[in-house]
Structures are given as C-alpha cells and as structure tokens.
C-alpha cells in the first residue's frame, strides 16, 4: 500500500451537537428573549393597574442605556446594533451588553494574555538601519512599523525570503518538506485541526520528530473539541510525545470569552522557517474533499530572521498560564539570513483584548496610501463604517479597487451580509467579483506592485474585533509579483457583480441580508 495513503487516525470524530447547541450564541439569545417575554408577562399579571408606571421606568432605563452607549468607546456600528436591541428589548438587551463586556469566567485569562504580550513586546530588536532605509522612500512602511510596535513586538526585517503559495495543496507539500528538516523545535498553532489525510500525514512527521528529540508543540482552538476533534484530544497527542494545548476549551460555563477565538495559523521550525496564511489543517483546505466547490486558499513561507516574530507570537499564546515562560531558550537560537532576498517583511498579530484594531489599521493604511491599485481576496465582507469608507474613498480617487469573494458560500448568512455592501461599493467605483468554481478562503491584499498582506484576517467583525489573528506584511519582496499574478488568474474564473446582476439576486439574500445587517457586529 502507498505510504502516503496511510493516514494516522487517533480517534473517530464524535458528535458534539448537544454541546455546540448549549454554548451557541443562538441559544443564549433565544434564552434571553424568552426570559424577556416571561418577565414582561409576569410583571403585567402582577401589576395590571400599574402598566403606565412600568412603561415610564422602561423609557427612562432605555434612555440611560442610550446615553451610556453614545459615550462608550465601541465601534459606531456596534453602538447602533446595541441601541436597536435595547430599544426593543431593554432588559434582555442590557443584560446581553453587560454579559459581553463582563467576560465572566475568563477575566483572569484575559489579564494573563495582556501580561504576556506586555512583558515580551521588546524581546525582538529592530534590525539596525532597516527603518531608516525604508523611511527615505516615503512609502509609509516605516510609520506602519512604528504603529505596530506600539501594540506588540513586530520588527521590520530584511534578508528574509518569502514564497507565496496560491493553493493549500502547494503549502501542504512545502510544509511536509520543511517539517522533515526540523532539528530543534516545531511550533504549530491552528484554528482548525481535523483528523483526515492532511493532518494524518503531518502527525506522522510530528510523531517521528518528537521521538527523535525535537521539541514539538501543537496548539489548536478549543472549538475544535466541539466540532472536528474528540474531547481532550491534547491528551492523545501527549501520549505520542507531542506537547499540546487547546486554546480556551469549551467548559460548562457561559462566558463571553468564547467570542475570542484563536483564529491564527502559524507553523515555525527552528526559528528559521515559518508558514502563515489562511490554510487550516483539514482536508478541504487542500481540496482532498469537496465541501463548497473548489477551495481557493493562500499562504506564505518565510525563511530568514522574520520567522522569529511568529515564534514569539506562538510562545505568547502558549505561555498564557506560565509565569516564567521559555522565550530566551527558543528565541536565542540563531536564524539564517538570506543575503540576496529583496524587500522587507513584517509579521504581525492582532490581539482583541488590547484596544488596538491592528488588522483593520493595516488594511486601511494600504487603502489610503495606494496610488494605482488595491486587489483583495476575502471569504467574508461584513464591514464597519471606517473600512467601507476607506474602500470607497480609494476607488473614488482613482485607485483600481477590486474584491474577489466566494461564488459558493460556506455560510449563507455571511454571504447575505456581504451582498448588503455591494451596491454602495459599486456606486463608488469598487469592482466586486465572485469566484464561480467555489469558495475563496484567502485573505490577501496586494497593492501597487510593492505591498502585500497574506494572513488570517478576514474582512468581517469576528476577525477585525473578536479573534486572535496574524498576518505577514511584505514590501518590495520578490513574491509580490506572484501574488498579483495569482489574483489575475483567479479573477479570470470569476463573475463580475453589477447593478444589473444585483436585481437578479435570490429573494433570500435580498431579505435576510438587510435584516441581519442590523445585528452584524454581534455575529
């Protein structure tokens, strides 16, 4: 039998339907709505002759909550959503607002995340003369680097080679090749790990490397144990010599912290090589199985000193509950520069707990500084006012702004919400396309043949506000031409969205999208 078909399977995936329902936002909202109705009925039966007094109390309560929201620091779109909920359902809406901001059950974990980032944000030093060289060309990349270094530790590197993968299959091949070369450590942090061909092949290599004395660490988002993996899957990995953790595993506790998922995709090998992009460790990402037509995804491989930035990101999350950490041990290992590599590379991450909207800020910076074009691929389009304004403004001042989105959606609700932005963007001159062969999961910005971002950050509220994310910013690297070529190749397989085609959209999207948009910041 071909060894490539020997898939390592630790356990059969188990059904998590009940647990998923119990901890879903849908159930929580439904329970609160039922509680609101029950409270109103009970109150009415108790005080039929005092209804007018209760109405006054409700009006005053709603007015106070609106004042509070007007003066809060949250995004304006989120304010409108909360005002709508509280206006129609004062008690349930106010309770939901308090619940999302109280972080019940996980406040300590949030504090540990913030402490890890704060204590290690100066661990990696900015290489000498790199910023000054970039500053002279007036691109603004040096300004962006200074902003990012206020939020974490994200040096701008030269002498780093970047390889772009236009499909998950290409990344997978390179991953297997580089994993076989590991000598010191392998760090893996992924939003989704699912048993199957892809993960089986990788797990085979990880097991052998662990047996050979390589430090192997695997971290996956805790939601996997409700959907794609058996419970306490990390114990099965530990039995194979692989150190493993689930980030924020789902416990029998209702908490808004479950909104904060680890959506990052990071692989670091010996501090010399790193992978980043949209590709998770499941078979649909390499088109081994067909879920929503052809799965279009992208990734990058970094070779050189910039790989250490991803090692630091991984260690910050790994050491959340470790007071001491082991940063020096792994970050002090020598990296290998690539002297003939052109351009500059800046890995960065976005932490939803620090108050900075890093992912959105980088995208907006690219849009405002663009002079020729900005070409974008994203699976979702659920925009706040600032990002939509940036897209429209870039197009209105003559920049060629093109968006490629899925032709076959994975979530109909998200697809409906994306379509609510189409007409406004088209009117401003933004060109929108849908990938007819299937689903686009790539998160790509490429601009003016000199700048690009490939990472995990979608154009939706969950990525921009609620998830731990990461990406690779590139300036004048050789692979930018490959990224733009891939965009054009993908564009040739797309249908263009026009004002006329919008008239022919299914009634479902015309109805559901505008209604869902009212609560899109909560989705």
Please give the share of residues in helix.
Answer: 40-55%
Mean pLDDT: 87
Query: What share of the residues does DSSP label as strand, in percent?
Result: 15-25%
Can you name the CATH architecture of the largest domain? 2-Layer Sandwich
- From the N-terminal CA to the C-terminal CA, the straight-line distance is 46 Å
Overall shape: it is globular
Computed Rg: 24 Å
Give the total of domains.
Answer: 3
Let me know the number of strands. Answer: 17
Name the CATH superfamily classification of the largest domain.
Endonuclease Chain A
Q: What is the count of DSSP helices, taking H or I runs of 4+ residues? A: 21
Supply the CATH class of the largest domain.
Alpha Beta
Which structural class best describes the helix and strand composition? alpha/beta
Q: Strand arrangement, largest sheet?
A: 9-16-15-14-10-11-12-17
CATH topology of the largest domain: Endonuclease, Chain A
Low-confidence stretches: 1-15, 252-257
Sketch the major β-sheet: 8 strands, mixed
